[in-house]
Amino acid sequence: MAEITTPAGADKMVVDKNNKIWVLCTSGNLIRINPVNNTVETTFNNVLVSGYNEKMVLNATKDRLYWLNASFGQPTKVFAMDITATTIPTTPLITRANVYGLGVHPNGDIYVADAANFQGNGRVYVYNNAGTEKSNFGTGRGPNGFIFR
Fold this sequence. Notes:
Layout: E1 10-15, E2 21-25, E3 29-34, E4 39-44, E5 56-58, E6 64-69, E7 76-82, E8 94-96, E9 99-104, E10 110-114, E11 121-127, E12 133-141
Antiparallel strand pairs: 1-2, 2-3, 3-4, 5-6, 6-7, 7-8, 9-10, 10-11, 11-12
């Protein structure tokens, strides 16, 4: 077992197609770790995150990251980045209020869960991989995550 120092607030983790570990930190950093030699290979700074309600997921081929930037009273932004990128995106792929969940279907569609401020039932919005809304449907209260078969 090894100890790897990360920026403050290491929160969400995923493993990409190259078995690299990606860590989203509430301090505004996204890092890529090489588990073979236990080193931080890349650190992206100034990542737009809020410090709460972080979500990070990969697409089915594990070569594209998606994460949320949720801020109180502001629309939530969904960012997307290829695992080979050398800079952090500054333009969101999707912007929507009350986002509480995020998932990517194996066909590439992006599922965004709107919790409706927990004041009633939520809604799921389905986007194509370019960020264009395709459809939406109602849910129960507080939709948060997705599992696809």
